[in-house]
Write a structure and sequence with these properties.
Blueprint (H helix, E strand, L loop, with lengths): L6 H13 L2 H25 L11 H9 L2 H21 L6 H45 L11 E8 L10 E8 L2 E9 L3 H21 L3 H15 L6 E8 L4 E7 L5 E3 L5 E3 L22 E4 L5 E5 L1 H4 L23 H16 L7 E8 L12
Antiparallel strand pairs: 1-10, 2-3, 3-4, 4-5, 5-8, 6-7, 6-9, 9-10
Helix pairs in contact: 2-3, 2-4, 3-4, 3-5, 4-5, 6-7
Length: 378
């Protein structure tokens, strides 16, 4: 994965991915024959004065984009045969111009075969990277339950800024424990493999502490201790931890993370800013007091959206941030996951290009108010 870290390589691999779609790939495989056929027809009709024979080299050149080694070689041979045939037809076969054209076709064919070999090698590397990344994602970001506790619907969405890796420094987890349903959403400072390793440390510590610690503050302390052993320098992790024990509220500790958005059943929406925000995880040496939890309303029919800054800091082509509150109505669908998928799709449309930062979202829905109709219980 480290060998694919450069921006140019990632852009190249994204191009290969787009080329890999069946419709585009089929078109590109036919393109060399179409180009050579058009050139041959024009040259056949206009005679030796057209001077189009050198354009036959476009056939093997285009073949290197989507064709394998054998097909690229065959296209080069076809281009050379057409050049010879048109040279005989126009009675210019062994003239300097025709000889140079044949040498050019031969040279382009050799170069195209080498380029095709390099492209296939990169495609295999990309497939290996994706295979490893998918395995790592299944271990690091396990599928969360669709339901957590009585009447609580859960949906998640994760979009990595590194399209080839599919994972990054954002993290989330939902765990049902004897102390209630506990949730974490976080964002590791930095990018790359180091951020993924730190996210793994946080999630591993959270999964253990969520079952062991009676209070949410104890979970935060365990995370802090784990990161103290792992982090170096000025690294840190912003995170928000939540606990649902029943009733009409959620207990939340915010460690320097963007505040969750509450969508009430009556249509009101607001950001649940903490009265006392704790420092990010990994900065325990600067804390004078332990973090103080606060309550976020979570009555029947309410929803709470947790997210990372990759969502609210996503910009479109004109530099405008994603207007999350204005798009909150997309979360009103009957199924929480489909509603969150609609919000993610809208985010990607707003940006119009690969995200500049990882974007994770986790939606909790109090489903009690939706059980009246069969469609709402989906």
């Amino acid at each position: 994965m480290a060998s694919l870290g450069s921006t140019k390589t990632r852009a190249f691999l994204r191009l290969l991915t787009s080329v890999g779609s069946s419709g585009t790939q089929d078109t590109l495989k036919l393109l060399p024959f179409i180009v050579m056929g058009v050139v041959a027809l024009i040259d056949f009709g206009s005679g030796p004065t057209s001077g189009l024979l050198p354009l036959l080299a476009l056939g093997p050149a285009f073949a290197s984009v989507a064709c394998g080694l054998g097909r690229t070689t065959v296209i080069g041979v076809v281009a050379l045969a057409l050049c010879v045939a048109l040279g005989v037809y126009n009675d210019i076969l062994w003239t300097p111009r025709t000889n140079i054209t044949m040498l050019a076709i031969l040279g382009v064919t050799v170069a195209s075969v080498l380029a095709s070999a390099g492209r296939l090698r990169h495609e295999r590397q990309l497939a290996d990277v994706r295979s490893v990344a998918e395995a790592a994602q299944r271990v690091l970001l396990r599928p969360v339950p669709r339901r957590a506790g009585p009447g609580i619907g859960v949906a998640v969405s994760y979009t990595s800024a590194t399209a080839e890796a599919r994972i990054g420094g954002d993290l989330y987890e939902v765990v049902t424990t004897p102390h209630g349903v506990r949730v974490i959403v976080g964002d590791v400072q930095g990018k790359g493999l180091e951020a993924v390793e730190t996210a793994a440390v946080v999630l591993g510590a959270f999964r253990e502490a969520a079952h062991d610690e009676a209070k949410l503050q104890g979970v935060v302390a365990r995370l802090e201790n784990a990161l103290t052993r792992e982090l170096s320098g000025e690294q840190f992790v912003t995170a928000i931890l939540a606990e649902i024990t029943g009733g009409a509220s959620i207990t939340v500790i915010n460690c320097g993370h963007p505040s969750p958005m509450v969508l009430a059943a009556d249509g009101k929406r607001w950001f649940a800013d903490p009265p006392d925000e704790a420092l990010p995880l990994g900065m325990g040496s600067l804390k004078a007091n332990e973090p103080v939890p606060h309550q976020v309303p979570f009555a029947p029919g309410d929803q709470v959206l947790f997210y990372t800054d990759g969502v609210i800091e996503a910009r479109n082509g004109t530099g405008q941030f994603y207007p999350l509150p204005a798009r909150a109505h997309l979360l009103n669908g009957a199924d929480p996951q489909l509603a969150l998928d609609a919000l993610r799709a809208d985010l990607l449309r707003h940006v119009g290009r690969p995200l500049g930062d990882d974007a994770a979202m986790l939606l909790l829905r109090h489903r009690a108010a939706h059980q009246a109709t069969p469609s709402a219980a989906a």
